């Protein structure tokens, strides 16, 4: 009677475990030759042992020690939280963590982000520890930003599109300060009391354009590009008001015209500002100025 596929697989798994205990490692290609199986089959066998076996490079696999396994998973969870991995992998079950190291080594998945600023290493080396300590201790900071000395109350460091910002209040108003534009920073002995409303606002809108004062924008999007806006939110706090054969009508919330105008410019001529009228006028004036050669700038950074 022929041996079932399941039985042969079980026998291979036992053999692999015995070899692991005897020699410490097994080689994927050696297993293929030993059992006369395909690479796909050996991957399936090793995946069945993923809770206790890990890839250690060059097609070699080893047993995970219980202590190391727990430490690695804890570290992976912490790093995923810090890097907000929910946007990339919304579901991260036990199987995801077991396969993480092998995915890194085998390099089948490529995740690309925006290029960081050229000064990022210097900026973080100069300010990360100081700002973290100031936030932990509620210390008032004195900074030089855009050639002006300011006293700020630091609340959070945030990274948006690979640019680092300090979210802090100045004279009671929440602002964003690009780390690369802070030319000097000092922590004072004086402390401040965190404002609950400010913390709640940052929690709801953890981005550089966070503000308690926003305005609504309504736009008409041509059907030719509507799919991009339906696939994901391309505008701040985007909402689809209605959709027809001609396209979409959307609304969004913006904190400043410099936040929304660059986004609209990117999608011209297939997008139109409906409301507010003053924003439509500002957009038209920007285009007129550009065509006239005046080069009126539209900033993509927060006014702080």
What does this protein look like?
The chain has 304 residues and is of the alpha+beta class. It folds into 3 domains: 5-106, Winged helix-like DNA-binding domain superfamily/Winged helix DNA-binding domain (Arc Repressor Mutant, subunit A, Orthogonal Bundle); 120-204, SH3 type barrels (Roll); 215-291. It contains 10 helices and 12 strands. A hairpin with a 2-residue loop joins strand 5 (148-160) and strand 6. Helix 2 packs across helix 3. The longest helix is centred in the N-terminal third of the chain and has 19 residues, at 5-23. The radius of gyration is 27 Å and the shape is extended. Mean pLDDT is 86; it is low at 300-304.
Quick description:
The protein has 10 helices and 12 strands. The chain is α+β, with helices and mostly antiparallel strands and 304 residues long. The C terminus is likely disordered.
Helices and strands, with pairings:
Layout: H1 5-23, E1 25-27, H2 28-35, H3 39-48, E2 53-57, E3 60-63, H4 66-82, H5 94-106, H6 120-137, E4 139-145, E5 148-160, E6 163-170, E7 173-178, E8 182-191, H7 196-204, E9 215-222, H8 223-231, E10 239-244, E11 247-254, H9 257-267, E12 271-275, H10 277-291
Antiparallel strand pairs: 1-3, 2-3, 4-5, 4-8, 5-6, 6-7, 9-11, 9-12, 10-11
Helix pairs in contact: 2-3
């Amino acid at each position: 009677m022929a041996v079932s596929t399941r039985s042969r697989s079980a026998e291979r798994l036992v053999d692999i475990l015995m070899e692991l205990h005897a020699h410490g490692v097994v080689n994927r290609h050696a297993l293929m030759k030993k059992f006369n199986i395909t690479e796909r089959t050996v991957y399936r066998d090793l995946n069945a042992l993923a809770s206790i076996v890990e890839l250690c490079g060059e097609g070699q696999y080893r047993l995970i020690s219980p202590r190391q396994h727990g430490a690695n998973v804890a570290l992976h969870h912490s790093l995923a939280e810090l890097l907000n991995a929910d946007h990339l992998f919304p579901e991260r079950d036990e199987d995801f963590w077991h396969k993480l190291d092998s995915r890194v080594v085998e390099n089948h998945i490529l995740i690309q982000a925006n290029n960081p600023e050229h000064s990022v290493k210097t900026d973080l080396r100069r300010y990360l520890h100081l700002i973290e300590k100031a936030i932990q201790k509620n210390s008032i900071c004195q900074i030089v930003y855009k050639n002006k000395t300011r006293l700020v109350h630091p609340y959070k460091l945030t990274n948006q599109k690979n640019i680092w910002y300090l979210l802090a209040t100045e004279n009671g108003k929440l602002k964003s300060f690009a780390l690369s534009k802070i030319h000097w920073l000092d922590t004072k002995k004086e402390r401040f009391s965190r404002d609950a409303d400010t913390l709640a606002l940052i929690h709801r809108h953890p981005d550089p354009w966070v503000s308690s004062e926003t305005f609504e924008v309504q736009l008409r999007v041509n059907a030719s590009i509507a799919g991009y806006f339906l696939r994901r939110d391309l505008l701040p706090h985007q909402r689809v008001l209605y959709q027809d054969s001609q396209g979409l009508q959307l609304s969004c919330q913006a904190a400043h015209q410099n936040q929304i105008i660059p986004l609209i410019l990117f999608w011209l001529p297939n997008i139109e500002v409906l409301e507010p009228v003053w924003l439509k006028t500002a957009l038209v004036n920007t285009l007129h100025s550009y065509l006239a050669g005046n080069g009126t700038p539209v900033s993509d950074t927060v006014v702080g």
